[in-house]
Amino acid sequence: MNTLVLIPGRKSLRYAGFTAGQETCKGAVHGFHWQGPQVALEEVKAIVAATGLLDDSTRIVVHGLFGGEEFPRPVRLDESSLARLTKVARHSPLPVVRLIELAQALLHVFPRSLAWLAFETSFFVDLPVRECRYALATELSDKLALRRWGYHGLLHEAASRHAGRNRRKQGLTKAPRLLSICLDAQPEIAAVQGMRPITVTSGATPLEGLPGESNCGEIDPTVALALANEVGLGPEGANALLTGESGLSGLVGRRVRLDEVLLGPRREIGHARDVLLYRMLLASGAAVAALGGVDAVIFSGRYASCAPVVADAILPRLEQAGVLPSHPGQWEIFA
Questions:
Q1: pLDDT tens-digit map of 67-87
Q2: Residue 137 belongs to a domain
């Protein structure tokens, strides 16, 4: 079966084609928001058609960030699901509006293909109340739909399923306690019991949690208020600074990728690697505590190849605390 995955972003439309699970093409169309989603999709269609990927059986999967509460599982893209998607806009209006526009154009550009919507937040719909709730008035939280989510749910879910399958091959049938570490532009750590997430480092938006390539991660809310009011940036300026000009890039003083920070010379990255690994250590310890121990550690994400660096920094500390089984193969990479 042929599959085309579409990932809309703020500035580009990324795509990847797969045949029988093997990647056959990938790339990005830049500036697709100003030129319109239909033009961008026509360009993607021409590119993937040249590879022989498109036929009557090609399945298209459209990646969405927000939408898990309305769509706890992948759903077929049609007029009904489009109507339901508009309900999600109250959680994150701009990203969802862009997704709706892309989905509408897709039905016209690929009328013969079966298309599906899949959301990163779906995996975290059933987070325990103690984890997903903020210490705010219930009425306010419900009115504004304030709760914690995870934003790499598709990777955490696939990695957890992979780890569980491997353990069953070893004759271990009990639902494993997994420490799932996603190494991406916005890294994320989740504690997973079997296939149910117990904790996650992200929050109501991807800003909360671990520091990423350009976002600050967890921060005292008064800092954002000070940036907006005392520094004079205003709400939009403060948001732009914390989400686009902070994090690892802010610490280094230039744009950097996660793999540069984890693998680069210390003289070039300063304290950025120490800050990231320390925050990951704290998050991992909290995740293991919530699980009551851990049976396996699994890495995924764009920079999963950097897993040895993270494992060397974190796992020995967990072993010393007696919460990580000390044996060969205690961690693995899901790619």
A1: 888 899 999 999 899 888 887
A2: no
**Shared-domain flag, residues 112 and 180:** no
Q: CA distances (Å), 35 to each of 38, 106, 136, in order?
A: 8, 15, 42
> Which two three-digit tokens encode residue 119?
């959301």
How confident is the model over 20-41, as pLDDT tens digits? 878 888 899 887 767 788 889 9
Please indicate, yes or no, if residue 129 is contained in any of the structural domains.
no
Nearest Cα neighbor of 199 from 307, 289, 319, 333 is 289
Domain residues for the domain of 302 are 153-333
How many Å apart are CA 155 and CA 178, to the nearest integer?
A: 13
Do residues 12 and 119 share a domain? yes
Pairing relationship of beta strands 75-76 and 114-119 according to DSSP bridges: antiparallel
Half-sphere exposure for 56 (CA within 13 Å, toward CB): 0
Tokens of 202: 């992200």
* 132 in any annotated domain: no
Query: How many domains are contained in the chain?
Result: 2
Question: Is the Cβ–Cβ distance between 289 and 322 less than 8 Å?
Answer: no
Pairing of strands 75-76, 22-30: unpaired
What's this model's pTM, rounded to 2 decimal places? 0.90
Tell me, yes or no, whether 15 lies in a domain. Answer: yes
Distance CA 78, CA 29 (A): 24
In sequence order, the 6+-apart residues with CB closer than 8 A to the CB of 144 are none
Half-sphere exposure of 22 (CA within 13 A, CB side): 3
**CATH code where residue 309 lies:** 3.30.420.40
Expressed in angstroms, the distance from the first to the final Cα of the chain is 20
* Count of C-beta atoms within a 10 Å radius of residue 31: 12
| 1-12 residue pLDDT tens | 889 999 988 778
